[in-house]
Design brief:
Length: about 350
């Protein structure tokens, strides 16, 4: 991938008009920019983020991903334990996960690096990693994770205040020195002969955690706008990350913040003949945090009261919620359509539990 020139994103495919948020303005407390972020987070749950300052780290992470994915499969597969244990950290092979209730297989391989492991390196908190990962842990991976976590926590702080929560409420559920499912993921989807079909590389889903911070090298990400049944691509804008709300924030806010359904298809048009690379950092609550509405906020309390009884009372911790979803996506654990149902978060109800 280094030095590769990709065809531009095509102008003749349907795209979703996401709002653009300037991170530098968010950090200064600019009221207009915060209003724009709030609108994005409550209406579609996706937005572009510019001036985030992580471009150098992103490029280095993609270089690390190429080195990792070039290893022989028999070497990479040594670091895959997700099907047996529900641990997300490590390697997932092409086709190892289901994309729908029929058991159709995904078309992506990826490496997850736990935030816990990066920040405790060289002492493993979750697991060990292949050589190319260890070689770049301190120079590349740790800086990327620290900067990404800082950005997501800053955005969480803004959303915390707009929800009317006591200062630091959301931040205290995402402390980086506590065990959590937060992780960096590098994804490779090779070209497929089914580029003109609707076969997804990664099936329709909502994200497990609170906030996702995404960087793509090609198109393919699609969002299902609320109230419609028509998928639309997210157009790539150079220098802009793509951010989105996950299930945990939807539950904490009793549906005020939207965890929206999305999927990944092969890249559109001329881009389809290239490997598709993505990089994402997921901020997730600490494993012990119970997923329930934060009714200390009157806004959230009112939203919960107007929803069907029990809709947002999951009765589970963030760690158990995450483990259930990881294990039930894996083909090795598939028993039938009920396994797929057990892998779901809020996507089966359009972003509402």
């Amino acid at each position: 991938m280094p030095g590769t020139t990709f065809p531009p994103f095509p102008d003749d495919v349907a795209t979703v008009p996401l709002l653009i948020i300037d991170y530098e303005l968010i950090k200064t407390g600019n009221v207009k920019e915060i209003d724009t972020l709030w609108n994005a987070a409550t209406q579609i749950g996706f937005w572009y983020l510019k001036n985030h300052g992580v471009d150098e780290e992103v490029n280095k992470m993609f270089d690390m991903g190429v080195e990792m994915m070039d290893l022989p499969l028999e070497e990479k597969i040594k670091y895959d334990k997700g099907a047996e244990t529900g641990v997300s950290a490590g390697y997932k092979a092409l086709g190892a996960s289901a994309i729908d209730e029929t058991g159709a297989r995904d078309h992506a391989e990826f490496l997850n690096i736990a935030q816990d492991d990066a920040l405790s390196y060289p002492i493993p908190a979750r697991r060990t990693y292949p050589g190319p990962v260890n070689a770049r842990m301190e120079s590349t991976i740790v800086p990327f994770i620290r900067k990404s976590a800082e950005i997501n926590l800053t955005l969480l702080g803004v959303l915390n205040d707009r929800l009317g929560l006591p200062e630091g409420t959301l931040g205290n559920k995402h402390l980086i020195d506590r065990p959590s499912g937060s992780e960096a993921r590098c994804i490779k989807s090779p070209p497929t002969q089914e580029i003109l079909s609707e076969k997804a590389s990664i099936g329709a889903h909502t994200d497990f955690g609170s906030l996702s911070f995404l960087h793509n090298r090609l198109g393919g990400l699609q969002v299902l706008p609320p109230g419609t049944n028509t998928w639309k691509y997210v157009k790539l804008i150079p220098g802009h990350a793509i951010c989105n709300i996950g299930d945990a924030l939807a539950i904490f806010s009793a549906g005020i913040l939207r965890s929206n359904v999305h999927r990944v298809l092969p890249p559109p048009k001329r881009q389809a003949s290239f490997d598709r690379w993505s990089l994402v950092f997921f901020t997730r609550p600490e494993n012990s945090v119970i997923l329930e509405p934060l009714t200390v906020s009157q806004m959230v309390k009112d939203a919960k009261a107007s929803a069907p009884e029990g809709r947002y009372d999951t009765g589970t911790s963030a760690g158990d919620w995450f483990k259930r979803r990881v294990m039930n996506r894996r083909i090795k654990n598939r028993k039938g359509p009920e396994t797929w149902k057990e892998s779901q978060g809020t996507e089966h109800t359009g972003g509402l539990v």
